[in-house]
Automatic annotation (TrEMBL):
It catalyses: D-glucose 6-phosphate + NADP(+) = 6-phospho-D-glucono-1,5-lactone + NADPH + H(+). Residues 190-478 form the Glucose-6-phosphate dehydrogenase C-terminal domain. Keywords: Carbohydrate metabolism, Glucose metabolism, NADP, Oxidoreductase. Residues 12-188 form the Glucose-6-phosphate dehydrogenase NAD-binding domain. InterPro entries: G6P_DH, G6P_DH_AS, G6P_DH_C, G6P_DH_NAD-bd, NAD(P)-bd_dom_sf. Pathway: Carbohydrate degradation; pentose phosphate pathway; D-ribulose 5-phosphate from D-glucose 6-phosphate (oxidative stage): step 1/3. GO terms for molecular function: glucose-6-phosphate dehydrogenase activity; NADP binding. Belongs to the glucose-6-phosphate dehydrogenase family. One of its GO terms (cellular component) is cytosol. GO terms for biological process: glucose metabolic process; pentose-phosphate shunt, oxidative branch; response to hydrogen peroxide. This is Glucose-6-phosphate 1-dehydrogenase. NCBIfam families: zwf. Pfam families: G6PD_C, G6PD_N.
Length: 498
């Protein structure tokens, strides 16, 4: 792990006029400042081509700040400034460098510490990185460069990007953000798995029947279809966010929490993933809602009228190692569904029937969002004189278990803090990235070819394509008997006799 930055750090956000900077990067920097996680002596510079005056810039970013009183906001804004310039303009980068150097000189900084955040489209990464290296880079100081996903469009473009960035910034200087790695419950996975023998001991093919990682969004592309059309749901959230969650869920125990120990294990498990089979997928695209109020994907004017872009996908995955051979794994993700939820479902094998006529399977649910929760569905005798079993749960729902005053950082807050501290654990390493693209590129090529079946149209606001239930059954998931699991209060007229 690299050393933590100190009190006099220059933080530059490139693409400061954009959506991500406004909605995530600056609010995250403010959140860290509000919580005392960022020294009040740092300097924060927004940089982009747009001509924006300082006051407008501050108004623009602060509109998205959460928490903190007006004094805190003003204190933070005093640390920020904006520079307008091109991404290949040595002249403007010299202005940036001078601004950083005068701050460092004023504060008697001997060894510079600089964090550059590229909140930019990937097409600009190499240009910005090379101008930075040429004009602003201080070889006697410490530099950290955060780059946003997508890191490429496929294996080839990802390798090109890697090849272009590698001579400019070392792997130690690079921090590739996948913001799912900053989510609280995702960060908890290693503790849940390896810190509890009751999970650790059964985390394998002998006890687990099936695994699902599911991502649902209750809204469509909301006018961003033009951007999404060349991306699709698989590239948007599966090749990165869901795959990252799955690696943490299935990898072996790292020897320590050291970033390289964790990332070595992630790479090892990724190498054991089987090829993604093109006949083991379910593809969908959302149409209008049943009441006609919500638009279909093709109603977005920025999308081609005959687009086959996939807004829903379910994929079967196999891992070929001793721990997981034969366990069906499903990744599924969709936009414009009935709810917004991201969760992991691990279903255990059934117990021996013997004494029970009917008994259901244990299921561990790890809800990443909203309202983080871990609950384990178990069989229990109905309380009282009944001898029947019912399905109930052991429940750790964060909102009822942890005080509301407890600060849980947002994903971007957590990751920027990690970068500040020099901790790479929750960032994507180059070899991890390469394997993930190698895994997904053949499938993406197939989905985007004429050979792929047209995606099934599902109504906006529905559960997704009709075939989903059968797809999940085919992958070993057994649905609970209707009405037998009730939450939060259980009505004792449940089915199932001892
Ligand atoms: N928005 C989001 O919620 C998320 C975004 N991301 C990723 O973060 C990065 C930034 O996203 P976002 O802020 O939405 O992107 P934007 O399209 O808003 O771009 C950010 C800024 O980059 C500059 N820019 C845009 N296009 C170009 C171009 N072709 N050439 C040079 N400069 C350009 C613009 O600034 P100017 O013209 O002033 O220089 C713009 O304000 C992307 O890689 C995106 O995939 C990842 C997760 C979520
Ligand atoms: O990277 C992306 O993630 C968001 C979902 O992030 P979340 O933190 O809100 O779950 C997704 O909406 C977007 O399409 C994708 O690019």
């Amino acid at each position: 792990m690299s050393a933590s930055f100190g009190n006099h750090v220059s933080i530059v956000v490139f693409g400061a006029s954009g959506d991500l900077a406004k909605k995530k990067t600056f609010p995250a920097l403010f959140g860290l400042f509000r919580e005392g996680q960022l020294p009040s002596s740092v300097k924060i510079i927004g940089y982009a081509r747009s001509e924006i005056d300082d006051a407008d810039f501050k108004k623009r970013i602060s509109a998205h700040f959460k928490g903190g009183d007006e004094n805190k906001i003003q204190e933070f804004l005093k640390l920020t400034s904006y520079i307008s310039g091109g991404y290949d303009s040595e002249e403007s980068f010299t202005k940036l460098k001078e601004s950083i150097e005068s701050y460092e000189a004023e504060n008697g900084v001997e060894k510079s510490e600089r964090l550059f955040y590229l909140a930019l489209p990937p097409s600009t990464f190499t240009t910005v990185a090379s101008t930075l290296k040429k004009v602003v880079y201080d070889k006697n100081g410490t530099t950290r460069l955060i780059v946003e996903k997508p890191f490429g469009h496929d294996l080839e473009s990802s390798r090109t990007l890697q090849k272009d960035l590698a001579p400019l910034f070392t792997e130690e200087e690079l921090y590739r953000i996948d913001h799912y790695l900053g989510k609280e419950m995702v960060k908890n996975l290693l503790v849940l798995r390896f810190g509890n023998e009751m999970f650790n001991g059964v985390w394998n093919k002998d006890h687990i029947k099936s695994i699902q990682v599911s991502f649902k969004e209750a809204f469509g592309t909301q006018g961003r279809g033009g951007y999404f059309d060349s991306i699709g749901i698989v590239r948007d959230v599966m090749q990165n966010h869901l795959l990252q969650v799955l690696t943490l869920l299935t990898m072996d125990r790292p020897v320590s929490f050291d970033p390289e120990a964790v990332r070595d294990e992630k790479v090892k498990i990724l190498k054991a993933f089987g090829e993604l089979e093109t006949d083991d997928i379910l593809l969908g695209q959302y149409g209008k809602s049943e009441d006609g109020k919500e638009p279909g994907y093709l109603d977005d004017e920025t999308v081609k009228s005959d687009s086959k872009c996939v807004t829903y996908a379910a994929l079967g995955i196999q891992i070929h190692n001793e721990r997981w051979e034969g366990v069906p794994i499903v990744l599924r993700a969709g936009k414009a569904l009935d709810e917004s939820k991201v969760e992991i479902r691990i279903q255990f094998k059934p117990v021996a029937r013997g004494m029970f006529k009917e008994i259901q399977r244990n299921e561990l649910v790890i809800r990443i969002q909203p309202d983080e929760a871990v609950y384990l569905k178990i069989n229990s005798k109905i309380p009282g004189i009944s001898t029947e079993t019912s399905m109930t749960d052991l429940d750790l729902t964060y909102s009822t278990r942890y005080s509301k005053d407890f600060w849980i950082p947002e994903a971007y807050e957590a990751l920027i803090r990690d970068c500040y501290l020099g901790n790479h654990s929750n960032f994507v390493r180059d070899d991890e990235l390469d394997i993930s693209w190698a895994l997904f590129t053949p499938l993406l090529n197939y989905i985007e070819s004429d050979k792929a079946p047209a995606p099934e149209i599902y109504p906006y606001g529905s559960k997704g394509p009709k075939g989903l239930r059968d797809f999940l059954k085919k992958h070993g998931y057994v649905f609970a008997d209707e009405g037998t699991y009730q939450w939060p209060l259980t009505n004792p007229t449940v089915k199932g006799k001892i």
